[in-house]
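[Q] Does anyone have a clean C-alpha cell version of this?
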Amino acid sequence: MLRAHLDVTLANKAITSGKLPEVVESLMARLNPEAAYFGPSRGGRSCTIVFDMQDSSTLPTIAEPLFQELGAKIEIQPVMNADDMRKGLAAWQQQQG
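[A] Here you go.
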C-alpha cells in the first residue's frame, strides 16, 4: 500500500498546468491498483493506493514521479487482503504442527 502526501505548492502548479492528472494516470497504469483513494490529509492533498508489488526493484518507478513532479512524501508498506491473510496463517499453522 502506498500513501502519498503531496506538496501543496507543487501540487497547485501541477493542477494549473494539467500535469497532476498525467502523473496520476501514469501511476495508475503502472500499478493497476486494487483500490485508489484521493482526499485531504494532514492539511493537504493525499492519496492511498492499494496495489500488488511483485518486485521491490519497481520502487523507483513508483516513487520518483511522485517525488519529482509533486514533491510528495510517501510511505509504502506491505498489506494483505483477507485471502492472503488466511493463506499466510494456514502456512504458519503448518510450520507449528
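[Q] Thanks! Anything notable?
[A] The longest strand covers residues 35-41.
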